Amino acid sequence: MTTPLTRRQFLKLTAVAGGSAAAMGGLQAVLNATPAGAEEGLLAPSGEEHIVPSVCLLCPSGCGVLVRVADGRAVKLEGNPMHPINTGSLCPKGQAAPELLYNPDRLTGPLRRVGERGSGEWEPITWDEAVQIVAQKLNDLRAAGHPERAACLYGETRGQMRPFIERFMQAVGSPNAISHDSLNIEAAKLATYYTQGVYDLPAYDLENSNYVLSFGANLLEAGRTPQRMVSGYSYMRRGRAERGKVVVIDPRQGVTGAKADEWIPIVPGTDAALALGLANVIIRSGLADSDFVHNYSFGFEDFKDGEGKSHKGFKEFVLQNYPPSRVEQITGVPATTISRLAGEFAGNPPAVAILPGKGGLLNGSINGLYTAMAVHMLNALVGSIETPGGVLAQRYFPCADWPQLPPDPVAERGRTAERLDGAGARFPLARHAYQAVADHISEGYPYPVEMLFLYDANPVYEVPGGTRFVEAFQKAPFIVSCASFMDETAQYADLVLPEPTFLERWQDDAIEGLGYPGVGLRQPVVEPLYDTLNTGDFLLRVAQAMGDPVAGAFPWSNFEELLKDRLKTIGAEWETLKELGVWMIPGYRFARRGSEKWVAEVVGRDRMSSPRDGRFDFFSRELNCALGELGADELKALGLSQAGDAVFLPHHEPVTYAGNAEYPFTLNVITLMSLGPYSAAANMPTLQEISGMTVGERWDSWLEMNPEAAHELELRNKDGVWVESPYGKLKTKVRLVKSLHPDVVNLPHNQGHTAVGRWARNRGVNGLEILNPASEPATGLASFTNTRVKVYKA
Amino acid sequence: MPRWSMVIDLDKCVACQGCSIACRMENNTPIVSPSEAALGRSMLWNDVFPLRAEEEGAIASAKARFLTRPCMHCEDPPCVKVCPVGATYQDDEGLVRQNYTRCIGCRFCTVACPYGVRYFNWYEPAWEDGLDQHLNPDRVEGRGVLEGPAVRPKGVVEKCTFCIHRLHKARARAEAEGRDFRPDEYVPACVQTCTGKARFFGDLDDANSTVSLLAQSRRAFRLLNEAGTHPKVIYLHEG
Amino acid sequence: MKARSVHPDNKHEAIILTPLQDITTIDRWLWALLLGLIGLGGYAYVRQLTLGMGVTGMNRPVYWGVYITNFVFFIGLAHSGTFISAILRLAGAEWRKPLTRAAEAITLFSLPFGVASIVVDMGRPERLLNVISHGRFQSPLLWDFTAVSLYLCSSVVFFYLSLLPDIALCRDRLTDVPAWQHRMYEILALGWQGRPEQFHRLERVLDGMAIFLAMLVVTVHTVVSWVFGMTIQPGWHTALIGPFFLLGAIFSGTAAVVIALAILRRVYHLEESLPLGLFNSLRKLLIVFTLGWLYMMVSEFLTIFYGNIPEEMEVFWQKFTGDFTWLFWAMTILVFVVPLLIFIFRGKDSIGWMVTASVLINVGMWLERFVVIVPTETRPRLLYELVQGTYRPTWVEAVITVSMFAGMFLLYAVFTRFFPIVPVWETAEEPGAEVPPVTRRRRRFGVRR
Ligand SMILES: Nc1nc2c(c(=O)[nH]1)N[C@H]1C(S)=C(S)[C@@H](COP(=O)(O)OP(=O)(O)OC[C@H]3O[C@@H](n4cnc5c(=O)[nH]c(N)nc54)[C@H](O)[C@@H]3O)O[C@H]1N2
Ligand SMILES: Nc1nc2c(c(=O)[nH]1)N[C@H]1C(S)=C(S)[C@@H](COP(=O)(O)OP(=O)(O)OC[C@H]3O[C@@H](n4cnc5c(=O)[nH]c(N)nc54)[C@H](O)[C@@H]3O)O[C@H]1N2
Ligand code: SF4
Ligand code: SF4
Ligand code: SF4
Ligand code: SF4
Ligand code: SF4
Ligand SMILES: [Mo]
C-alpha cells in the first residue's frame, strides 16, 4: 500500500489503537447496549397521508400552497409549483401557517355579549340564533326605511368575497361596504386611475426588466405581493443571462435596499420631486419615448382645451419646476445622482419605476397621490406601459355575471344615500375612507349608524388613533365582528362570529401582480376544528332568513356553490381547479399600443368621466373632471397649495407634519417580512421568534435610529427610550441602524397588541397610537408618515 | 455514493427566513419563550442573521449583509472529532448525523463547531395547547436509534440533518417502485421553500449536477474555509 | 485478637493523634453546616435534572460555564497533593514530609468533585456509561475521562499505601475510641505489622508510584486543557494552553496546601509538626509559580496581539476591555500582583500573610479558569454582531458550586478527625526499622539527587 493516509484515516486508526491500548475493548463488549447491526430505516407514520392544494392568506400575495395532511392533521405547507405567484416557494409566514390553524387562541364558536361592551363576558350561541339575530336587525332597519344605517367595514377581502359583500350590502340597501384600502393600496390605485385610467394596482414584469427603480416599494419584505416580487426579482438578478440593476429609493435601507445595487436615502415625503427631477433630465436629454408621449398620451405638451383655453403640459411644467438642483434641495439626493439615475433609467430599457403598496404615499397630504402619479408617469415617459419588462394592467378572468338584484324600493333608496365614510363627498377623490368612519359615527355624519358589521377588520388596532373607534362604538347600537380571533375590535362587538382559518374554508383568490388572469382556490384541507362558519355562508343564511326580496338576490345554497357558479367561465372544470389549486392563462398578456385591447384593458379601462381614448394622462383629465370646478379656496381646503393647471399635473406638495421643530424625527412605521400587518401573525409564536431578525430583536418592538442621531441624543444601542409625538408617547428600546436617514426613525408595525392572543398581547408597542389620526382631505387616505416625534431616554 | 451538498446564492437570497421556518415545521424544532429567546436559546437549525456592518463610510455606502446558515456537513467535521460517544458521526454519504438516543449532552460538539449550528435542548421541548398537532410524524431510526424529525428529549444536542428523513423516504419510494434512486429525487425542506430560489441541493460527486457546476463559479466560497473543515455548503457571493 | 506491630518513634505522635480522640461540638456544627450546603446543592441539582439544563445561565453560544470552570479548578486543586508528595518525593525534598498527607488529602477530596462537575454539566447524566460502551478515543473528552479516572485510582492507592502504617498506629494506640472506629482501623490496617521489610517494600512501591503519578500530573492537566485546545476556537487553540493549565493547576494546588496547613496547624495545634519553615519553602515555590504564570500570560497574549488575527482579537478585547474586563484584571491582581508583593515583602515568617496570598491566588485561579473558558465562547469564530454571547450564572449553578466546595471541606474535615493528617511514620526521628537512607534508595530507581 503506497497511498498516504489522509488525516481522517489517520485519526480513525489512532482511535482504534488508542481504544485497545486502554483495554476498553473488553468493557465495550460487555456494556454495549445497542442491538448489534440494527438496520437503518424509516418508521412510516401510521395512518394515511395526502396533499391538498390551497392558497395562503397570511398576506395579500396569495401564494399557492400544497398542504401535507397526515392522519387528518395539516403538518406541512409547501409552495405550489404550479402557482405563478410563488412557483413553489413560501415565505416564513406561509411556512408557519399551521400555527394559525392550531392556534390555541382561536375563537371556537359564535358568541353573544352578556356583560358591558368590552367587559369580555360572553355567552355561546348557535349559528341559527346568530343568523336570526342579524336577519332580524337588518329587517328592522329595512322596515324603518333606513337600511343605509347598516355598514360593513372589511379588511383584506379576497376573490368573490369582496363583490359578494358589496352585493350583500346593496341587496340590504346600504352603500356602506367600506374597504380598508385607504390604509394602504388606495393611493397607488388612485394614481393609476388618474393617469392610466385603471383603478387597480399595476403589475410589474420584473422578469424582463433591465432596470428597476423602487420608490419605497419594500419589494423584498412587503411590497404588496412579496412572493411575486421576490420571484421576479431573483429571476431578474440571476435567472437569466444579464443581471438587471435595482435602485431603491427609501429613507431606510432595509433588506430591499441592502440587496439592491444602490440605495438612495431620501427625505421622506419628497418622492414626487425626485420622480419629476428624473423626468426633467429624461425630457431634457431627449431620452423620453417620443412615440409613446406623442401618440399615446395626453397633456405631455402644452395644449388648448375644447373651449380654447390653453393649458400647461407636463413637459414644460417639469422643465420649469424640477431642475435637479432644486430637486436636490427638496429631496436631499445630489443633483449628479439624479442626472445619473435618469440617464440609467431611460438608457436601459426596459426599465420600470415601482409603486409601493403604501410606502411613503400615506403622508396625510394630497402629495401621496401626486407622488404615485409622478412615479407611474416615469414608466410612461420611457414607454414602459404594457411592454415586456414594464408595467402591466392586471387582467382578471371574466366571471359569470351576478344575477340582477330583484326590484326592491327600500334597498334602492338606501343605496343612493351618502356614504358613511364620506367617500365622494367629504373626500371628493376617495373611494374608501375607512379610518374616517370613527369620527363620522361619533359625529353622526351623515346619519346615525345602527349596525356595524366587521369582516376581517381590526380598526381599533390598525388605524392611526384607533381608540377613536372605541369611542365611536358607543354610538353604534349593534356591532357584529366576523373574525378568527378575539382581536382589539371584536372585544367591543355584540356578536362575534368566528370564521374558520384559510386552511378550513372555501374561497377563491384572484392572482394579482403578474398581469395575466389567474385564480387560486382555497378549500378545507382539514375538517374545521371548531364551530366556525365561513362568513360567506353566514351571509347567505342571513339573506335566506331575511326572506324576499333580499333572499332573491342570493340563489345559492352555500358559498362553495356560489364559487362554482361564479368560476364556471374560467375554462377549467371545478374538479380540475380543486385538484390543481390554481388556474391561469399565462399567454394572455401584452396589448399593442393603440389596439382595441389596449383601449379596453390597458389605458382608460375604468375611466368614468374622461374619454376612453387609449391615451395615458400626463395631464390628468379625470382629476380635472373631479376638481376642475373648484375655486382656489376650496382647493386650499383640500390641502392644495397650487391652483390652476398644476392641480392636474403631478407636483411636489410639501407635506405638513404634525409636530414642529420640537419633534425632530419623522416616524416611519415599517412592515416586517416576519409579521407583516396582519394581526393574527403577531399571535404565531414562531413568527414572533424571528420577528426582528435584521436587528437581532424578537418578541418585542424596537425603534431604529441612525447612530449619528443617537450620538447627539446620547443614546446608546438598546437604551430604553420614549418616542413622543403630539398624540402620545410610547416606551421602547432604541436600536442603532446605520443604513437609515438621520432624520427618520423606524418602528415596526404589528406589535403592541392588547388582544388577539397570548403571544400577541402586551408585547412591544403599537406605533399607530401616536400617529396623526387625520385623514387626507382630498383622497380620504389615512396618514401614516406625516407624524414627527422626539426621542429621549426612558 | 452521492456526496450531498448545498449551494446558497447570496445574490438571490432575500433574507426572508423562509428556510428557517420551513426547517422548523419539517423538523419539529420547538418554540422557545421570549426570555429563553433573549438568552439565545432559540432553535432554528437554519438561522438567518445580519453580518457585521462595516464600521466606516457615509450612510449611503453602509450596506447591511445577511447570511443564512444550515449545518455545513463538513467533510472534516470538528464536531465529530470531539464527540466522546459517537453520538454525532459522519455517514458514508458524508452527512454529519446526530443520534439523540446516544448523546450524553456534554456539549463538546457545540463548542467545537465553528459555525454555531448545533443546538442544545435546554428543556423538554413543548408545544402549548394543541399546537403540537402540526408536528411532522416522520422518524428516522439510524443505526437503530432516534434521528431526524422525531421530537427530541431534553438534554441532547440537535442540528440540521439535511432533512435525512426525506432522503430515506425518497429511497423507500424508489425501492417500492422497483427502480434505482436518483439523487435529484430528494431536496431538503429549506431548499424547497426558498423564496429567492437561492438554494440548490445535489450530489457533489456528479460533475454535471447543479451544485457541482455552481461550485465551480467564480463567486463560490465556503464559510470559514480557513478552519479546515471543508464545508459541503457552498456560498455564492453577492453581486 | 489484636494485631500489634512495630512503629517508628515520633515525638509528636501524641499531638498528632489527639484530634482523633475527641470530636468536638464545633466539629459537629461544622459538619452539619456543610451537610446543609450539600443538601441545598442536591436540591438545586434535582431541579436541574427534572427541569433541564435551562435552569443554568448557559446558552447559545456559551455552552460551558461555571460547571466546566469548576471541573478545571478542582482538577487543578488536585495537583497539590501529587505535586508535593510525588514530585517533591522524586526531587528528594525532605522538607515535604510533614505536609504530604495534608496535600494528598486535597487531591483525594477534590478529584471526585472534578469528576462530579462534569456529570453535573451533562445534559443526560444517566447516559454516563455510554462513554465506556461507545467511547471514541478521538475525543479529547475521552482522554480526559481516562486520564482523570486513572489519576483518581492511582491517587487513592498511593494515598492509602502511605496511610497504612499510620492506620496501624491508630489501631494500636487508640484503644479508647468507639468500638466501630477501632474496628475500622483494624480492617483498614490490613494487618500491617511494620516489619522492616514491609516498610522497605512500601517505600519502594511509593517511589515507583511517584514516578507514575508525576507523569500523570503532567498528563492529566494537559489533557484537561486539550478539551479546549483541540477545538479551533479563538483563544483556546494554542499549544501553550497545556503548560499554562498545568502550571496554573500546580500553582493553585500549592496555594491550597498553604491554606490547609495553616488551618490544621491552628486548629489541631500542630505548630511543632508543621514548622514555620514549611511555609517559607512553599513561599519560594509560589514565587516561582506566580512569575511563571506571568511569563505564560505575557507570551500568550503578546503572540495573539502581534498575530492580530481578527477572531483572536475579538476574544482578546473581550478580556482586556470588553465584558470580562473586571474579571480579567481582578484575576491578574489576585494571582499575580498582590501575591507577589506579599511574598516579597510580607510573606516571610508570616503565616497570616501567606494564607491571605493563597486565598487570593485560589480565588484568582478560579477566575482565571473562567476567563479562559467563557470569553472565547462569547465571541465564536463565525461572529455576527447581533448574536454575541453573554453569560450570567444562575442561583442553581452558584448553589451547586458552593455545595461542591462544601463537600470537599466536609470530606477533609471528617478525614482529619479520623486519621492523622501529619504522617507519623514518615516524620519519625528514627525509623523503627532499617530503612535505606534516601539517597541510596533514589539511586536504586535511577534517580539522582
Ligand atoms: N411579509 C409581508 N409582506 C406583506 C404583507 C405582510 O403581511 N407580510 N402585507 C402586505 C400588505 S397588506 C401591504 S399593504 C404591503 C405594503 O407594502 P409596502 O408598501 O412595501 O410596505 P411598507 O413597509 O409600508 O413601506 C415600504 C417602504 O416605504 C418606506 N417609506 C416610508 N416613507 C417613505 C417616503 O416618504 N418615501 C419613500 N421613498 N419611502 C418611504 C419605508 O421605509 C418602507 O421601507 O405589504 C404586503 N406585503
Ligand atoms: N402605521 C401603519 N398602520 C398600518 C399599517 C402599517 O404598515 N403602518 N399597515 C396597514 C395595512 S397595509 C394593512 S393591510 C392593515 C392590516 O390590518 P387588517 O386588515 O385589519 O388586518 P388584521 O389586523 O389582521 O385584522 C383582521 C382581523 O380579522 C381576523 N381574522 C384573521 N383571519 C381571519 C379570517 O380568515 N377570516 C376572518 N373573517 N377574519 C379573520 C383577525 O381577528 C384579525 O384581527 O393594517 C394597516 N395599518
Ligand atoms: S407571501 Fe404572503 S401569501 Fe405568500 S406565503 Fe407568504 S404570507 Fe403567504
Ligand atoms: S458545521 Fe458544525 S455541526 Fe455541521 S458538520 Fe461542521 S462542525 Fe459539525
Ligand atoms: S453533546 Fe452529544 S453529540 Fe455533542 S459531543 Fe456530547 S455526546 Fe457528542
Ligand atoms: S437541510 Fe433540512 S434540516 Fe437542514 S436546514 Fe434545511 S430544512 Fe433544516
Ligand atoms: S428562504 Fe431562500 S431567500 Fe429566504 S432567507 Fe432562506 S435562502 Fe434566503
Ligand atoms: Mo395592506
List the helices and strands and how they pair.
The complex is a heterotrimer of chains A (794), B (239) and C (449).
Chain A: H1 7-21, H2 24-31, E1 41-43, E2 49-55, E3 64-70, E4 73-79, H3 92-95, H4 98-101, E5 111-113, E6 122-124, H5 127-143, E7 150-154, H6 161-172, E8 177-179, H7 186-196, E9 203-204, E10 211-215, H8 226-239, E11 245-249, H9 254-259, E12 262-264, H10 271-284, H11 290-295, E13 297-298, E14 303-304, E15 310-311, H12 314-321, H13 324-331, H14 335-347, E16 351-354, H15 367-381, E17 391-392, H16 409-415, H17 437-443, E18 451-455, H18 459-462, H19 467-473, E19 478-482, E20 495-496, E21 507-510, E22 518-522, H20 535-546, H21 559-566, H22 574-580, E23 582-584, H23 596-602, E24 616-617, H24 621-627, H25 632-637, E25 665-670, H26 685-689, E26 703-705, H27 707-712, E27 720-725, E28 728-736, E29 744-748, E30 788-793
Parallel strand pairs in A: 7-8, 7-18, 10-11, 10-16, 11-12, 13-24, 18-19, 19-20, 25-29, 26-28
Antiparallel strand pairs in A: 2-3, 3-4, 5-6, 5-20, 9-17, 14-15, 21-22, 22-23, 25-30, 27-28, 27-30
Chain B: E1 4-9, H1 18-27, H2 34-38, E2 47-51, E3 65-69, H3 78-82, E4 88-90, E5 96-98, H4 108-112, E6 119-120, E7 139-142, E8 145-147, E9 157-158, H5 164-176, H6 189-193, E10 199-203, H7 210-215, E11 220-221, E12 233-236
Chain C: H1 13-21, H2 25-51, H3 66-77, H4 79-91, H5 100-121, H6 130-133, H7 140-173, H8 179-188, H9 196-229, H10 241-267, H11 276-307, H12 310-320, H13 325-345, H14 351-378, H15 395-418, H16 438-444
Helix pairs in contact in C: 2-15, 3-5, 3-10, 3-14, 4-5, 4-9, 4-10, 5-7, 5-10, 5-15, 7-8, 7-9, 9-10, 10-11, 10-14, 11-13, 12-13, 12-14, 13-14
The site of one iron/sulfur cluster has 14 residues of chain B, from helix 4.
Q: What spatial order of strands do you see in the largest sheet of chain A?
A: 6-5-20-19-18-7-8
Tally the helices of chain A: what do you get? 27
Task: Give the strand content of chain A.
Answer: 15-25%
Radius of gyration of chain C in whole Å, from Cα? 23 Å
Label the structural class of chain A: alpha/beta
Q: List the uncertain runs of chain C.
A: 431-437, 439-449
Largest sheet of chain C: none
Radius of gyration of chain A: 28 Å
The CATH topology name of the largest domain in chain A reads Rossmann fold
Helix fraction of chain C, binned, reads over 70%
CATH architecture name of chain C: Up-down Bundle
